Structures are given as structure tokens and as C-alpha cells.
Amino acid sequence: MKKLKILEVTTYTAGVCGVSSRVLQEADLLAKHGHEVTIFSTNHVKGRPREVAPTEEHRGHVIIHRFPARKLGGESFTYWRFKRELLLFKPDVIIVHAFRHTHTTQALRFARKQEIPCILVTHAPFNTGNEQRSLLSKLAISLYDTFTAPRTLPKFAKIIAITHWELEYLHRLGIPKEKIAYIPNGIPPQFFTQKPSPKSPRKILYFGRLSPVKDLETALRAISLMKNKSTSLELAGPAEQEYLTKLKSLVASLHIESRVSFTPAIYYLKQKIAKLDSAYVFVLPSKREGMPQSLIEAMSRKKLVIASDNLGASDLIQNKKNGFLFPIGNAQALADTLDKAFSLPVSKAKTIQKAARASVEQFSWLLIVKKLEKVLNEITAQ
């Protein structure tokens, strides 16, 4: 396909964030395929509200421009201006990330005025009943989806859903099938090629942000309820300080200090893969997930994965075939499932582990970027 000048627009490009992880991987591979790629984002750092990221950063052949932003609510809802820089960059195509955000609307308006195709990657923000949102936020979302979304969404050249479960919501908002492409988040090929590191046969790992939506209290309570007392749980990742304090207090009250450890964020890919390899079981007890990146990564490393039965996890796991699901927030059910995982016959465990690996091979970025380039080729040829 022809080489394009591509602009990606997202809230974060610093800190640990599932959306920014996709954007950075996507941009890097598109640049390696010969496209000129620039990213616009805020200068906020995900998970570290007091920090400010550099105004400009070069990552390989990708340039990141960051802008001051004002928070409008929650952790990610912000307002920031980049119209002048858009005019200077003059992209062939714009890819905006996250539905219902001000940067999405701003980029779409510019694209339509300049007759530039604009793609929306939704990132699964639709209501599932387990959101950590205020009543005001829920009301605003309901009003937006009722009145604004049906008028705005059809104006995008293409809408990319990252999960299968989003498709129903998009159809409900009046988006025809031909306007939607399913292109999930990907993971680097190293997850499939790096040699295995030693693992502890009694270790359970959670890897990701330590934040309330991940419902790690349920995991801690499950550890205290397990019949198998020889197991340990490691919670690895960047933590919201107030939530970390709450978790440590719960560990103390449950008297499981000797079985629970906390590890800071790991940013280097080799070390991240080695950390996943170190565990026998991977657990993800979240109240909600869009497309859980860490779950795919763990499955690629042949972990026995156990996740709460939210839409994002159940989109990936077939219960008892390539992993296990338990009811959201049910610590006893999680404890029982953990005990079951550790007591599986070796042959049965290996069957589930191999099935986990096979089910996520489709998420290698080498395959995902080809799908994206096909969409880019179609919309820029029109």
C-alpha cells in the first residue's frame, strides 16, 4: 500500500495505560512499515497525577507531541487544544482513540473540514453495570449516547471495535455493519518467541494497575479462604497510593502478610515476560474490562488464567477450556477456582495452557497491523 502521513490522537502516552499501549505499539509498527506517524496526547502521566511528561518525545521513527490539558472529570476525561498543530502536520488520515472524548470530537471536526478520513477506535467504554462512575457521569454518558453519538459516529470513515462484545452496542447506536471493523489490541511477538523463564509452582500473579476497578480486595480475600495455604500472591504494577494503602491494610487484617507481596511497575518487555513466566496461575478479578491486555499476555505465556466473568474477560476465556471464570466480586468462588487450578492433573493443566496460548495467537501485532493497514488502504483510496 502507499505510504501515509498518519496522526494518532489519544489521552495518554506516558504511564501505564491499555489505550496508550495500543497506540504506541500501533504507531511503532506503522512507522516500521514506512508510514510517517505522529502522536498527539496530553502531557499527563497515567496513574501519576502530579507528574508531567515531556512536551516532545521521539520513540524510534515515531514523534509524540504532548499538550497541557484540563481535567473535566474522572482520570481520563480531559480538554486540550491541538488545532494549530493539526493544520501544520496535514495528515493523510487521523486515528482517534476512545469514544466520547473531547479530543475525538475535535479531531473529527477538523478532519471533515479538511476532507481527511478519520477513524475511531472505541476502546470498549460501554456500560456493563460494573463501572466506577458517579451518578453525574452516568447521566452524562446516557445523554451523550442517546442524543450525540447517533449523530457523531456515522461521520467517521471507519469505527474500529477492539472486542466482539462492543458490536451490539454500536449496532444499537445505529452504526451499520459495513462501517465497523473488528481489530483487537495486539501484543508484541516476543510474547510468543521469548524462551520461558523458571516458574514457581505455587505462585499466583496479578500484573497490571493497582486501582479500585481491578477489585484486588476480592483476590486478597480469596487467598485467605483457600484450602491450599502453601500458595502465594504477587501484585505487580503501578499503584494508586490511596488504594495501595487500603490493600496493605486488608492484607494485615486477613493475616496473610507471609503470602502476599507487592512489586512496582515493570516497563521493560523482557522483564515483564519473565515476571509472567514466574507464576503458575494468573488472576484478574476486575469489576470490568474492555479488552484486558495483561490477560492476553498471560495466556500467550501458557499461564493457567482465572478472571472475573466480565464482558472483556469472557470475550477471551471459554470457561474450563482455555482458562477459568468466576462471578465478579465472589471471593469464595475465586478461592475454590484457585484451589481447583492447583490440584489439576498435570495433563489436564497442560491441555488448558496450550489452549490458552492457541486462542491468543491471533493477537500478535504482526497480524493486527496488517488488518489495520487494509482499513487504511480502503478509506484513503476512496
Structural class: alpha/beta
Low-confidence stretches: none
Rounded to the nearest angstrom, the distance between the terminal CA atoms is 14 Å
CATH superfamily of the largest domain: Glycogen Phosphorylase B
Number of strands: 16
How are helices and strands ordered from N to C? Answer: EHEEEEEHEHEHEHEHEHEHEHEHEHEHHH
CATH class value of the largest domain: Alpha Beta
Note the main sheet: 8 strands, mixed
Could you tell me the mean pLDDT? 91
Task: Provide the fold topology.
Layout: E1 5-9, H1 18-32, E2 36-42, E3 56-59, E4 62-67, E5 70-73, E6 77-79, H2 83-89, E7 93-97, H3 102-114, E8 118-121, H4 135-152, E9 158-161, H5 166-172, E10 180-182, H6 190-193, E11 203-207, H7 216-225, E12 232-236, H8 241-254, E13 260-263, H9 269-277, E14 281-284, H10 293-300, E15 304-308, H11 311-314, E16 324-326, H12 331-342, H13 346-360, H14 365-381
Parallel strand pairs: 1-2, 1-7, 2-4, 7-8, 8-9, 9-10, 11-12, 11-14, 12-13, 14-15, 15-16
Antiparallel strand pairs: 3-4, 5-6
Describe the structure.
With 382 residues, the chain is α/β, with parallel strands linked by helices. It has 2 domains: 5-186 and 364-381, Glycogen Phosphorylase B (Rossmann fold, 3-Layer(aba) Sandwich); 190-362, Glycogen Phosphorylase B (Rossmann fold, 3-Layer(aba) Sandwich). Helix content is 40%, strand content 19%. It has 14 helices and 16 strands. It has helices spanning 18-32, 83-89, 102-114, 135-152, 166-172, 190-193, 216-225, 241-254, 269-277, 293-300, 311-314, 331-342, 346-360, 365-381, and strands spanning 5-9, 36-42, 56-59, 62-67, 70-73, 77-79, 93-97, 118-121, 158-161, 180-182, 203-207, 232-236, 260-263, 281-284, 304-308, 324-326. The strands form 3 sheets. It has an 8-stranded mixed beta sheet, with helices on both faces. A 6-stranded parallel beta sheet has the order 13-12-11-14-15-16, sandwiched between helices. A two-stranded antiparallel ribbon has the order 5-6. A hairpin with a 2-residue loop joins strand 3 (56-59) and strand 4. Helix 1 (18-32) crosses helix 14 and helix 7 runs parallel beside helix 8 (241-254). It is globular, with a radius of gyration of 21 Å. The protein starts with a strand and ends with a helix. The mean pLDDT is 91.
